[in-house]
Amino acid sequence: MANPNKFDNVIEELEDKFQSINQNTEDHLKGLLYSKPITYWDYIQTDALLGLQIQRTQLPDEMVFIAYHQINELLFKMILWEIEQVAECKELKADFFAEKVMRVSRYFDMLTTSFNIMREGMEVEQYMKFRHTLTPASGFQSAQYRMIEFASTELINLIDYRFRATIDRNTPYTHAFEHLYWQAAGKDYKTSEKSTLLVNFEKRYKDDFLRFMESYNTKNLWTRFKELPMEAQKDENLVQAMRHYDYTVNITWVMAHYNTARHYIESGLGDGEATGGSDWKKYMHPKYQRRIFFPELWSQDELDNWGENI
Questions:
Q1: 48, 121, 189, 275: which sits with the fewest CB atoms below 10 Å from its CB?
Q2: d(C-alpha 135, C-alpha 195), whole Å
Q3: Helices 143-152 + 196-216 axis angle, to 10
Q4: CA–CA gap between residue 207 and residue 176 (Å, rounded)
């Protein structure tokens, strides 16, 4: 039998909770009489989740490809969730910051090691067949991944290195957007002509990106780091967590992705082109675009050799 005093305490706490939001406690308690017990499948929405894998072909390994990328997007959502907590924290402390950054790093560590599922888990022949049904779509078009980048660092660090000298904090977001490093994967800067891959991506997400870029301009991870007291900025655990995150996202994970793409695209069974028509080698390899979230946490030698010798 439940402890009466403990039960009374719970009722009092419920009264306080509902009164604070101008709600009637009795109405909520009556609602419990008619609500059904929660189940795992209802809580996780298992049926809905498992109904989202819709193939375009009858090739079995396409299921691997679809489910794997959906898992990636779920992890991206978790990453953004952790970064948002740092961005919105009113009284940011080094230990809280480090904990959240390491959570994000573990998600990317998981993403990195999971590329073997793609590399070893699909027959090359099957992939080279069903990939034709994906044109002109590409993993390049992951909006959440772009948001992770915007939320991680100052915008200048995402600008194509060829144009960084001409862009500063006073540059309109629309202009900066046109010179982000990943534009190079689908844009001819001499003619300004964009590929279908890029046109479709921007039509769907450009407005969202511009709002997100402006929102995180003053609360991205690097900006929040610089708001910490100098003593906290020198905290060994936090600095190491930031460096680990930067290296994991911009070298380790990128190279795992690059090597998986090369395994299929350069298999000799296709034309050597990415599904979206991007210059995938120069877009993906870290030594070309030099994506570095926290450049001030690296030595000059480390910066000069970013993405080399890997």
A1: 48
A2: 12
A3: 30
A4: 13
Distance CA 152, CA 222 (A): 6
DSSP assigned state of 250: I
Can you give the C-alpha Rg of the chain in angstroms?
24
295 with 243: CB under 8 angstroms?
Answer: no
SS3 (DSSP) at 305: coil
Q: Name the nearest CA neighbour of 154 among 167, 142, 163.
A: 167
**DSSP-assigned letter for residue 187:** E
Nearest-angstrom CA–CA distance, 91 and 84: 14
Q: Which two tokens stand for residue 103?
A: 């959570």
CA 124/CA 263 separation, integer angstroms = 8
Q: Is the pTM of this model over 0.85?
A: yes
The pair of structure tokens assigned to 184 is: 């190079």
Strand-strand pairing, 193-194 and 187-188: antiparallel
Is pLDDT of 41 > 90? yes
Place of tokens 């050597």: 272
What pLDDT score was predicted for residue 232? 96
162 token code pair = 């060829």
Please check whether residue 80 is in contact with residue 147, taking contact to mean a CB–CB distance below 8 angstroms: yes
Which tens digit of pLDDT belongs to each residue from 163-188?
Answer: 989 898 889 999 999 999 988 878 77
> For all residues of the chain together, what is the average pLDDT?
90
Torsion sign over Cα 62, 63, 68, 70? positive
For the residues 293-301, what does the mean pLDDT come to? 97
Tokens of 227: 């708001």
CA distance 74 to 71: 5
| pLDDT digit string, tens, across residues 66-107 | 999 999 999 999 999 999 999 999 999 999 999 999 999 999
